[in-house]
Amino acid sequence: MVSVLVLNGPNLNLLGTRQPEVYGDTTLTGIESACASHGAGLGLSVVCAQSNHEGALIEAIHAARGQHAGIVLNAGAFTHTSVALMDAIASVGLPVVEVHLSNIHAREPFRHRSYVAPVALGQICGFGARGYLLALDALAAHLSGDGGI
User: Which fold has domain 2-144?
Assistant: First the structure.
């Protein structure tokens, strides 16, 4: 099976209790479980990780090279601030699908800018926890060479 990394950034460990009106009531554990199950159906082995620390996320991205075929990334607030994450993604050469639970383009103006988007295959936002499954679908299609419909 092809291995992919589902990587989550700051505060996502609080899902289910943190602003459920914005982020929903699904926990990170629930998202990870759904990703593993959905990924298996796509022929993907899904490895999940989360950190509240920018450096740890960068290390996980670096370590993914040679270990995983791609990354699904919810960088949380680092999406809007971290040139270092952008550089790490560009440096490893792995396909990345950016995902957000909320529609970042319908929120505060500072959330409209993503430093991840320019180095990602694409961005999925606003579909809640289902966005992770959509991201896995997109990544699987890309990895199989079937990007069309």
Answer: Rossmann fold (3.40.50)
Say what the pTM is. Answer: 0.92
pLDDT in tens, 96-137: 999 999 898 877 777 788 999 999 999 999 999 999 999 999
Q: Is 23 a known active-site residue? A: yes
What is the four-CA torsion angle of 107, 112, 115, 120, rounded to 10 degrees? 90
Q: Which residue out of 62, 68, 80, 100 is catalytically annotated? A: 100
Question: How confident is the model at residue 84, as a pLDDT?
Answer: 98
User: Where along the chain do its domains lie?
Assistant: 2-144
Annotated active-site residue 105? The verdict is: no
Closest CA to 57 of 28, 22, 32, 92: 92
C-alpha 129/C-alpha 135 separation (Å) is 10
Q: What confidence tens digit (pLDDT) does each residue in 10-52 have? A: 999 988 887 667 666 789 999 999 999 999 999 999 999 999 9
Catalytic-labelled residue, pool 23, 38, 68, 132? 23
